[in-house]
């Protein structure tokens, strides 16, 4: 049986990437490349709910899990995205334990949470499985991801990890919030990260982070992180395009036509 994303994360670091171009073809290319997951970015990219659902369905068809990053959790939207096939929801800028609990509750059926039941979806086999089996499998399947990217945290970090599967570091926003844009290695930022990592170690919470490249990914993996979002679709296209054009200029700009 194929392991789901939760099971893979328990065993080894997994590589994902941010998706900002909401096209099924992009999902197919990323799946064929071998990414472990995709984060569909509804926080910063211009992605509508309809487009997100198209991305999610493409992920289901291609066999690649799709996590959706929302600017804020809304119960109805969370329901529809999970029923479309999203494996998880990612919430940015966590500061309070109540925010974690709210997200967890929205994503899980009673008695664990408050998610309402609908079976007209692929994971319920459109009503052909028992309600109990569907509820149990969904509660086990979904991945709750919370982002830690602010200097101020209003509650005990360990309490904020209650219900989180992944604690995700947003290094860009975090460094900006500390007044050192682009410098994740600043001593104050590092002390903040160490506190989060210590709490995750005590609670058994998986750590995740955004990495712009493989060198940055290696930095986090060596610290025990396993949910790595490396680069993004636009950056990957830009890097490929820049590399191709640079190589073309270097090799062919000096040649005469017909020679």
Notes on the protein architecture:
With 259 residues, the chain is α/β, with parallel strands linked by helices. It has one domain (5-252): Alpha-Beta Barrel (TIM Barrel), CATH 3.20.20. The protein has 11 helices and 8 strands. It has helices at residues 5-11, 24-33, 49-62, 75-84, 97-107, 131-141, 157-160, 171-177, 187-203, 214-221, 233-252; strands at residues 14-19, 37-41, 66-69, 88-91, 143-148, 166-169, 206-211, 227-232. The chain has an 8-stranded parallel beta barrel with strand order 1-2-3-4-5-6-7-8, surrounded by 8 helices. β1 (14-19), α2 (24-33) and β2 form a beta-alpha-beta unit. α2 packs parallel to α3 (49-62) and α3 (49-62) packs parallel to α4 (75-84).
């Amino acid at each position: 049986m194929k392991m789901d994303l939760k099971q893979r994360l328990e065993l080894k670091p997994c590589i994902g990437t941010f998706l900002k171009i909401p096209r099924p073809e992009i999902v197919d290319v990323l799946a064929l490349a071998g990414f472990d997951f995709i984060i569909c970015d509804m926080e910063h990219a211009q992605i509508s709910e309809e487009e997100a659902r198209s991305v999610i369905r493409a992920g289901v068809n291609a066999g690649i899990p799709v996590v959706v990053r929302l600017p804020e959790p809304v119960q109805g939207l969370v329901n529809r995205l999970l029923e479309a096939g999203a494996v998880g929801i990612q919430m940015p800028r966590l500061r309070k334990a109540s925010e974690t609990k709210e997200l967890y509750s929205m994503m899980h059926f009673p008695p664990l949470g408050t998610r309402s039941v609908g079976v007209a979806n692929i994971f319920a086999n459109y009503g052909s499985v028992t309600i109990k089996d569907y509820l149990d499998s969904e509660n086990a399947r979904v991945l709750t991801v919370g982002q830690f990217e602010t200097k101020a945290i209003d509650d005990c970090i360990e309490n904020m990890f209650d219900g989180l599967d992944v604690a995700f570091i947003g290094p860009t926003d975090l460094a900006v919030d500390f007044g050192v844009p682009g410098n994740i290695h600043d001593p104050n930022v590092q002390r903040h990260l160490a506190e989060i990592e210590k709490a995750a170690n005590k609670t058994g919470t998986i750590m995740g982070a955004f990495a712009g490249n493989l060198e940055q990914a290696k930095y986090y993996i060596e610290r025990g992180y396993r949910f790595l979002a490396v680069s993004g679709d636009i950056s990957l296209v830009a890097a490929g395009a820049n590399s191709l054009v640079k190589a073309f200029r270097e090799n062919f700009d000096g040649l005469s036509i017909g020679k």
